[in-house]
Amino acid sequence: MKTYKIAVLKGDGIGPEIVEQALRVLDKISELYGVRFEYEEGLIGGEAIDKTGTPLPDETLELCKRSDAILLGAVGGPKWDDLPTDKRPEKGLLRIRKELDLYANLRPAKVWEPLISSSPLREEVVRGTDMLVVRELTSGIYYGEPRGIFEEGGKRYALNTMKYDEDEIRRVVRKAFEIARKRRKKLTSVDKANVLEVSALWRQVVEEERENFPDVELEHLYVDNCAMQLVRRPSSFDVIVTGNIFGDILSDEAGVVVGSLGMLPSASVGDRYALYEPVHGSAPDIAGKGIANPIATILSAGMMLKYSFGMDSAHDLIEKAVERTLEEGYRTPDIWSEGTKRVGTKEMTDRIIYNMERLRDETP
Ligand code: IPM
Ligand code: MG
């Protein structure tokens, strides 16, 4: 039987409880599709700091490197907030991205029709929105050198460097074109080419790559304009490709446009490794209460099936089961509204799994 090894990094806060539910969904997939998943756990984030003194122990990195894919919960919490930047749980995330060369961060944001009223935008504006932000994840201002806080002439100053070489731009742009080709064939490249040289080069490389994808419609937007268009005409976007910091900001904006943060999955992929995690954080305030929304993590596991294992129909089954469960009115507290059924983390997953079974029978 086909066997896949999955590194499971539960992390902090609600991380463990939501990852546990995503594993139950994967177990159901294994049963329905006749594949085997082997899980091995590793430490990351605050828990790793407490137990080993570092947010990303070498052992965890080794585990990731010998696995077929990585499933991550969330990292961080108030307990570690006072640590210096390079010792914080978040550093574990930044380091794993860099060490595994996970250069393309895929963040889908789509409206779930049953949840459309939870968008802050009017229904007629947001209806039909289904986009994917492809964010460059291992370079740009997040990693550029030199960086630091210095002092000169009795005055402090700080410096960060935004730097991209053409290969770094090209590989993520290519990935975005390829993904767009499999979707609605529309790509929006976002930059600040009217001001930044880095963006001027970005735009040149995008133009060069466009030759290889004549079937994909391309538009360039300045980042400030894109921020506006995302709230004015969200449904007109298909795939958006952009650099690290613009992608950080725009993907949060795209997320809020479509409603709940508890619904947003992500994939961070390179040429060798891939990591899947919900976009939301560790929500320490509700950790351990059994009320966290497991859907973003379940959908992240679904992305793993599609992008790492080529199991597109298993991915679609999970999406359909989530949609059906929402149509039936099941809601965790973060997405609950009058007239719907309030359930906890486990009951929500139970119902999704039940619907996976039912829908699998209906769609051979
Ligand atoms: C994200 C987060 C991270 C980032 C932080 C936690 C370092 O905001 O994944 O978007 O900025 O990349
Ligand atoms: Mg962010």
Which CATH class of the largest domain is shown?
A: Alpha Beta
Query: What does the radius of gyration come to?
Result: 20 Å
> Element order, helices and strands?
EHEHHEHEHEEEHEHEHEHEEHHEEH
Main sheet summary: 10 strands, mixed
Query: How many beta-strand runs?
Result: 14
Shape, principal axes of CA atoms: globular
Output the structural class.
alpha/beta
Give an overview of the whole structure.
This protein is an alpha/beta fold and 364 residues long. The chain folds into 2 domains: 1-117 and 259-364, Isopropylmalate Dehydrogenase (3-Layer(aba) Sandwich); 120-127 and 136-258, Isopropylmalate Dehydrogenase, CATH 3.40.718.10. It is 41% helix and 21% strand. The chain has helices at 15-33, 46-52, 58-65, 89-99, 123-126, 166-182, 197-210, 223-232, 244-257, 295-307, 312-327, 345-362; strands at residues 3-11, 36-41, 69-74, 104-110, 130-136, 148-152, 155-159, 186-191, 217-222, 239-242, 265-269, 274-278, 330-331, 341-342. The mean pLDDT is 96. Bound molecules: 3-isopropylmalic acid (IPM) and magnesium ion (MG). 3-isopropylmalic acid binds at residues 90, 93-94, 248. 3-isopropylmalic acid is lined by residues 90, 93-94, 248.
Which descriptors would you attach to this protein?
single chain; 364 residues; alpha/beta; Isopropylmalate Dehydrogenase; 2 domains; 10-stranded mixed beta sheet; two-stranded antiparallel sheet; 12 helices; 41% helix; 21% strand; binds 3-isopropylmalic acid; binds magnesium ion
